Amino acid sequence: xxxxxxxxIVKQYGSLYAVNNVSLTVEDGEFVALVGPSGCGKTTTLNxxxxxxPMTGGDVLIGDRNVTDLDPKDRDIAMVFQNYALYPNKTVxxxxxxxxxxxxxxxxxxxxxxxxxxxxxxxxxxxxxxxRELSGGQQQRVALGRALVRDPQVFLMDExxxxxxxxxxxxxxxxxxxxxxxxxxxxIYVTHDQLEAVTMADKMAVMxxxxxxxxxxxxxxxxxxxxxxxxxxxxxxxxxxxxxxxINTGGKIALSSSEGWQLPLSxxxxxxxxxxxxxxxxxxxxxSTLQLHKSKESNSVPGRVYTVEPTGxxxxxxxxxxxxxxxxxxxxxxxxxxxxxxxxEFDQERLHLFDGETEMALTxx
Amino acid sequence: xxxxxxxxxxxxxxxIDPWRWVGRxxxxxxxxxxxxxxxxxxxxxxxxxxxxxxxxxxxxPAEPTLQNYAKLLDPNGSxxxxxxxxxxxxxxxxxxxxxxxxxxxxxxxxxxxxxxFPGRTFLFFSVLLRNMFPSVVFLMPLxxxxxxxxxxxxxxxxxxxxxTFGLPLSIWLLKGFFDNIPIQLEQAxxxxxxxxxxxxxxxxxxxxxxxxxxxxxxxxxxxWNEYVxxxxxxxxxxSMTLPVGIQRFFTEFATDWPGLMAATFLMSxxxxxxxxxxxxxFVRALTEGAVKH
Lengths: 365, 293
Fold this sequence. Notes:
Chain A: Keywords: ATP-binding, Cell membrane, Membrane, Nucleotide-binding, Translocase, Transport. Chain A is α+β, with helices and mostly antiparallel strands. Chain A contains nine helices and 20 strands. The interface between A and B is medium-sized, with 24 and 17 residues.
């Protein structure tokens, strides 16, 4: 296993930058998730690491080798594709053996390695079948097996779970995580599902518009999103963002809404708010940090319930507030109805402030 | 109980669909239309010259004979020598056309399907340009060209011509085929240690066999049946192909109908055999991509 370094990699299609100056280091044995909405450049980035696309600029280092100009076959990587890309005309055994044959291993060696991988993934009984005779989960295992047999330096995975049904996806997610822990493998994993990234990865790289937005542990990304995009992308349901106006009330800052209410900020938050380039400030809050009151309380602001979505464990309530909708999670026992007047209390310790112009998170000066 | 009572009532509900019968009758008509001439060809080929010319016609040969076939296939007789010569010429021209066609069409179609390069769309549609005109339009220009290149009376002239006529369809058909093979398969192969060419050769080629076979059949049949160009380009008797050669059975005073029919029958044998053996690939090729797998 090895470290992977991306140095200012760029991929340009005509005037469009699919990947724009992305630099990041994946440590040896680390599980890194590239995450972002469709078209954000995450798969392109993965293909650049794999060498399947020519790079416009930048360098890729695997281990201590600069592989920028090497063919995919010489990079010592393995890849699992979204559609598994199993060779349809070959049996499972031959699918697993193909990478070894290409490396000119002896028949006996191939046989041992294929059997080992098949045992690990519990697909020994499928070896003589063709891919089309397998279920989605089994195909997924075979695809993983084909990556595994070669003992590569890096595993690249391109949305490997997105073709599975919901239940199997959760199951394979745990298996993949376990697989990574047991093998101490370096994994770069592309997904559009932030939940997969958060649950599996040691670090996540959030991408948007070809740019790397934030690269940190899921916990840090979740707790300290660097900008509004990351804040709204990571976490489910998404962080609620309310555009407000900052006004100075004798040294302290209060956020004022077009509806007329004001939310005075704590001292620490006031300092953050003062660093903004404009008076427009976006207030961000996760559903779990908000409290819903049925009657007016101090430090709470008025809103109106839009919808109530019970999920069983927890009920999500969408509330119209200051021209935006905020999502609050409630215990299912609490009874609220649509169009009911409610009051929302923000947790000053756990709210997020963003610059209304630059959309960047406001931090301590 | 309910199961027992529903079964017969469901059966009763199946109506006789008049359109289904109209369709069947139409198909029967088509079948007769195509099979009858062939049947007559076979029947005539086993008649004697006298019986073939009788009026009213002899529907069933009174004295069936294989004499005509024996004459055509006898390597010692003059007719046999001639016929076998034409047959071989046709086979040679068609085979070389087919093989060269595949050699050119496969990489061309693959390039159109997988690579982006300047002028790709233009080139792809210009491939079709030839097909926008009836082939006779090119007869004289091509003849002049062939004469200028000294290729008149050689099989090379025909092979070149048939290639230019057959390639557009081959390339389009094969491109459709390659388009349907997920690019991830090649990417996987390249990551698994294959070069670009190996990925193509080991992974893409086997998957596109039906397409390659279908295009081969197309170009083989095209070359095998072609008459006008063969008639124009080749005037030496020993280089003639079958469609032209068979014509020699028409003579000014007496046409040898049974012999002609036997020759025609023998000429259709390779095509029919080719179709029967490879038809499952052929059908797959034409319906490929019609439904998502």
